[in-house]
Amino acid sequence: MTPMDEIKNLLESNIDQSYAEVSDMTGTMDHLEILVVSDVFKGKMRIDQHQIVMDVLRESLKEKVHAVKIKTLTKEKYEGAK
Fold first, then answer.
1. Dihedral of CA 73/31/48/57: which sign?
2. 41, 26, 31, 30: which is closest to 76 by C-alpha?
3. Looking at the 3D structure of the chain, how many domains does it have?
4. Cα dihedral value 54, 59, 65, 70, nearest 10
5. Residue 10's domain is classified under what CATH number?
6. Residue 45's pLDDT band (boundaries 50, 70, 90)?
7. For 26-42, how does the pLDDT look when each residue is reduced to its tens digit (9 = 90+)?
């Protein structure tokens, strides 16, 4: 299992009814782009949404990842963006 798979599984198992995509932005596996879709984000400010994601990942990212780009969407916004 790759580190990106581990992060995807961690997010999906810790954020209710979520879908996550994790991609490597530089080919070094330490600059990641993360998309998390969940209705847990409904009505929350973007900074609060990102804090939810970081609370799940904080320990996992401490030594493995240098930079993270986070995008959070509700299911409705995700479907509308397709």
1. positive
2. 41
3. 1
4. -10
5. 3.30.300.90
6. very high
7. 888 878 999 999 999 99
Cα dihedral value 56, 39, 23, 61, nearest 10: -10
State the residue range of the domain holding 75: 3-81
pLDDT by residue (tens digit) across 61-79?
777 777 889 999 999 999 9
SS3 content of the chain, % helix, strand, coil (to 5): 50, 25, 25
59 Cβ contact list (under 8 Å, min separation 6):
none
Question: Who's near 42: CB < 8 A, 6+ residues apart?
Answer: 74
Cα gap 59→3, rounded to integer Å = 13
